[in-house]
Design brief:
Number of domains of chain B: 1
Strand order of the largest sheet of chain B: 6-7-8-3-9-10
Bound molecules: adenosine-5'-diphosphate, magnesium ion
Oligomer: heterodimer
Number of domains of chain A: 3
Strand order of the largest sheet of chain A: 2-3-8-5-7-6
Strand content of chain A: 5-15%
CATH superfamily of chain B: P-loop containing nucleotide triphosphate hydrolases
Order of helices and strands of chain B: EEEHEEHEHHHEHEHEEH
Number of helices of chain B: 8
Helix content of chain B: 25-40%
Strand content of chain B: 25-35%
Number of strands of chain B: 10
Number of strands of chain A: 10
Structural class of chain B: alpha/beta
Largest interface: A-B, 29 and 35 residues
Shape of chain B: globular
Radius of gyration of chain A: 29 Å
Radius of gyration of chain B: 18 Å
Structural class of chain A: alpha+beta
Chain lengths: 622, 247
């Protein structure tokens, strides 16, 4: 067995604690991905709602994978820093840089393989749990049996190993750069210098983010919204790359008034001096606060935007919902019922859509349909119209001839005669002539937009429909509020699904860094005690360090969120008269509070725990 | 000049200078040190703290590159070697022992001693590794991890590892600094006897006159310059010379 592999195995066994965080992160990621994949394979094709749920779960698993790379990178980077002396020694007794690099990769592989197998086994449990959950929520009619197919598990485990190796890549390169003289040196490297590659990647990410921010400000709403979801990730990667340079500086400036304080001043100096540890600690807090903060605000602004559009366009003063029978009181002037039929575009850019049959004149009168380009009055015969944002995904535009497949099996070529402005709450993205939609099985969806007959006012219409007793009769204002509520509730579910695992990962990363940090610093704590600090002072020092770093990271995260939000606001209100501004303060504060809590708890627990372990034992150990 | 009959020196320092630039300004750790270490010699380097002892040792081992001057080890000019070639030379021709942290915590005493051979891609000869450990008196502790060994035992494992590759030179930086007096003496006697039996060249940094008295000669360093030389001195003589320097 080559020396590096043998040493890698022994090293993982010895440094179990250092790799606990990586192990948990990879195992959890694999479990989530395996669970979702397994469930998807088991359920198969079962309608739009199941598909939506599965794709939400897919996004969740994707985020989990992204964060797992972060955690592994951070824990491996940390392990390398903590072991500089040992790695230097390895170089000194004759290991080439390549051998050191290989050893760290072997260690990553060992950890990843163990974690991937564990995760795959857990994945089955996750799939079973999700199947129960979906059935309980009524999304699937009954509990789906989970397949025994092993391939999804193998694929997820493979993903886990790849993710771990990606995470460990930079760390292994850095390990190979540790000079042999490190074995002789007393003071550990403060790591404030960063490599060229890291600097370049960081700069590229920040430059890319800056470009995207300009795009958000200038772009149209849907593009802006999409960019606002990717910008924070780029900014976070960029800032983390530059973290060892940037963060100590930021903390120093922010805490300058505390310089003279005996305990806080020491904490401040430690944070400034241990640039790598500071970055490892700040990264997850920054990631979660920037990504979650931006996502929460973007989704809220999107809901505001939708509501603004609805207010702008909706002309009907009364909306009746939850009935398949058209209200027909004499006070009714124009009635416009919604319907839906699924269709698939065929060919290369084939996609599934939900389409709606409309009578253009009626829809313009009740729902204020606005034509962006083309001519909506030509929506007759074999034609279709699509909304502006759908042009992005569709791969066809005004004048295109599109072959569509209806559920009844017929294929029809349709010409795109108009592009309409987006109004997600008021109509589907694909609009067909009513007759064509009916002919291919369009079903009423139970919502009716009603205009009063000439000489009847809105209040009279409302009362009359109430008395008629068909469905749920709402004023336009009530209906808008209800649709808005539903959209925000749905956003909330999505947010929890996406941010839940992300938050969990951030927590693991924070706890891992602090726990390992404290274990590594036993000797330093002993020295601090020897020069006269009380145990309580040491605890307060560690707490203050974490608070300073978390505070700086939260500040950066808030700055990212605020920037994205400010820029996003402009395109989301352009051309609309009445757009509400909803800032979900509760959610934002909850994120900040969660970050602070995890950091503080993870900081204090190891120090309290170390109290029971006389540090004299640590001095004997290597 | 009648040195032609002598073997070439094991280590040559030729006008070695090393300065560090830092925010506080430039520090000249070594300011031109010239010395030839004869093969089979045991040399102690002494001097006040900060006088450049560790820097000298690191330059001599190719762990640090001099700002100017040359270093030759076993006939190779270290300044001309690539990092990989330097690593190979260190692996084959040099051994190291420091004050502490000499061993990889993950490996047993046996595996620590066998490591240099393994890194070189060779199968470590079992009997040689065992013999090296026996010679330092640790034949029964082969399977122990560093954490399960005393400080003196750890130093002896480090010496076994430094010797097992049969290097030409061994560098030691305060190898007894973290040991009690009795254990320290055992370690020094071990080094002394290895020099005598195997013709090893040893360069040892120390601040302890007793430790230095085990060496054939002592070099005194002050402010980055060689300022004195004492051959075959007793601990008392060495201590007196040190006092002289520090005044
Ligand atoms: N990496 C370094 N960076 C800056 N200065 C250094 C570095 N290493 C050593 N020095 C300085 O060089 C001088 C000699 O150091 P050193 O060789 O460690 O002395 P000694 O081992 O004799 O105590 C000291 O003034 C020390 O501060
Ligand atoms: Mg020194």
């Amino acid at each position: 067995m080559p020396a590096t592999i043998r040493l890698g195995l022994a090293s993982v066994r010895e440094h179990r604690a250092l790799y606990a965080g990586s192990f948990v992160a990879v195992a959890l990621g694999v479990a989530l991905i395996a669970g979702v994949v397994l469930l998807t394979v088991s359920i198969g094709d079962q309608g739009a709602e199941v598909q939506d749920t599965l794709s939400l779960l897919g996004v969740m698993a994707g985020f989990a994978g992204f964060m797992a790379i972060f955690v592994v990178a951070s824990t491996f980077g940390f392990a390398v820093t903590a072991r500089r002396r040992e790695l230097g020694l390895l170089r000194l007794v004759g290991a080439t840089p390549r051998q050191v690099r290989r050893q760290v990769r072997v260690e990553a592989l060992v950890v990843a393989a163990l974690a991937a197998v564990t995760g795959a086994a857990l994945g089955r449990l996750v799939a079973l749990a999700l199947a129960v959950l979906l059935a309980a929520q009524g999304i699937t009619p009954d509990r789906a049996p989970v397949t025994w197919d092993l391939r999804p598990l193998a694929i997820s485990a493979g993903c886990g190993v790849v993710v771990a190796m990606l995470g460990a890549w930079a760390a292994s390169r850095r390990a190979a750069k540790v000079p042999p003289a490190q074995a002789l040196r007393e003071a550990t490297d403060t790591g404030r210098r960063i490599g060229v590659l890291r600097g370049v990647v960081g700069t590229l990410c920040l430059a890319g983010a800056a470009l995207m921010l300009v795009g958000i400000r200038a772009g149209d709403p849907v593009l802006a919204l999409m960019l606002s979801i990717f910008v924070p990730e780029l900014v976070v990667v960029g800032l983390v790359c530059w973290g060892p340079v940037l963060l100590p500086l930021l903390v120093r400036v922010l805490t300058a008034p505390l310089r003279e304080h005996p305990v806080l001043g020491l904490a401040r100096a430690n944070v400034g001096n241990q640039a790598r540890r500071t970055t490892s600690l700040a990264a997850p807090v920054l990631a979660i606060s920037a990504i979650a903060g931006s996502l929460i605000l973007s989704l809220s602004f999107a809901a505001d935007w939708d509501q603004g559009i609805t207010r702008q366009q909706l002309a009907a003063p009364v909306v009746v919902t939850d009935t398949l029978r058209a209200p027909n009181a004499p006070e009714v002037g124009v009635i416009d019922g919604t319907n839906a039929v699924s269709l698939a575009t065929t060919g290369e850019a084939g996609m599934d859509w939900t389409a709606e049959g409309i009578d253009p004149a009626t829809a313009v009168a009740t729902r204020g349909l606005r034509t962006h380009r083309g001519d909506l009055t030509r929506l007759t015969g074999r034609t279709m119209a699509i909304s502006r944002s759908a042009v992005f995904d569709a791969g066809f535009g005004l004048g295109s001839q599109v072959r569509v497949l209806f559920p009844d099996g017929t294929r029809v070529p349709l010409r795109v005669v108009a592009i309409v402005e987006d109004a997600a709450t008021l109509h589907e993205d694909v609009l067909l002539p009513t007759r064509l939609a009916r002919a291919h099985g369009a079903k009423p969806t139970g919502t009716w937009f009603v205009l009063p007959a000439p000489g009847v006012d809105a209040a009279e219409l409302h009362t009359a429909l109430r008395d008629e007793g068909t469905g749920d009769v709402l004023t336009a204002e009530q209906w808008i509020a209800r649709v808005d509520r539903a959209q925000r509730d749905q956003n909330q579910v999505g947010l929890i699904a996406i941010l839940g695992p992300t938050g969990l990962y951030a927590g693991i990363a924070i706890a891992n860094t602090l726990l390992m940090g404290s274990l590594q610093r036993r000797r330093e704590f002993t020295v601090t005690r020897l020069v006269g600090a009380t145990a309580a002072q040491v605890r307060r020092m560690v707490l203050a360090e974490s608070a300073m770093v978390a505070g700086a990271a939260l500040l950066l995260g808030s700055a990212v969120t605020a920037t994205v939000a400010l820029l996003l606001r402009a395109p989301m209100t352009a051309g609309l008269d009445d757009v509400p501004l909803t800032v979900p303060w509760a959610s934002l504060l909850a994120i900040a509070a969660a970050c602070a809590t995890v950091t503080v708890v993870a900081a204090v627990v190891p120090v309290v725990w170390l109290r029971g372990h006389p540090s004299a034992a640590a001095d004997h150990q290597q | 000049m009648s040195t032609a009959t002598l073997a070439p020196p094991a280590i040559v320092l030729d006008g070695v200078a090393r300065s560090y630039g830092s925010r506080a300004g430039r520090v000249d750790a070594l300011r031109g040190v010239t010395h030839a270490f004869a093969p089979g010699s045991f040399t102690a380097i002494m001097g006040p703290s900060g006088s450049g002892k560790s820097t000298l040792l690191q330059c001599a081992a190719g762990l640090d590159r001099p700002t100017s001057g040359r270093v030759l080890v076993a006939g190779h000019d270290l300044g001309l070697l690539s990092e990989a070639a330097l690593t190979r030379l260190r692996r084959d021709a040099m051994g190291f022992v420091f004050q502490a942290y000499n061993l990889l915590p993950a490996l047993t005493a046996y595996d620590n001693v066998a490591l240099p051979a393994r890194l070189a891609g060779r199968r470590p000869p079992r009997d040689e590794v065992a013999a090296a450990l026996t010679r330092v008196g640790l034949d029964t502790q082969q399977r122990r991890r560093p954490a399960e060994l005393s400080g003196g035992q750890q130093q002896r494992v480090a010496i076994a590892r430094a010797l097992v590759t049969r290097p030409q030179v061994v560098y030691a930086d305060e190898p007894t600094g973290a040991l009690d007096r009795t254990t320290g003496r055992q370690v020094l006697e071990l080094v002394r006897s290895t020099v005598d039996t195997e013709g090893l060249t040893v360069v040892m940094v120390t601040h302890d006159p007793v430790a230095a008295s085990y060496a054939d000669s002592v070099l005194f360093l002050a402010d980055g310059l060689l300022v004195g030389h004492l051959a075959r001195g007793t601990a008392t003589q060495i201590a007196a010379a040190m006092n002289e320097l520090e005044r």
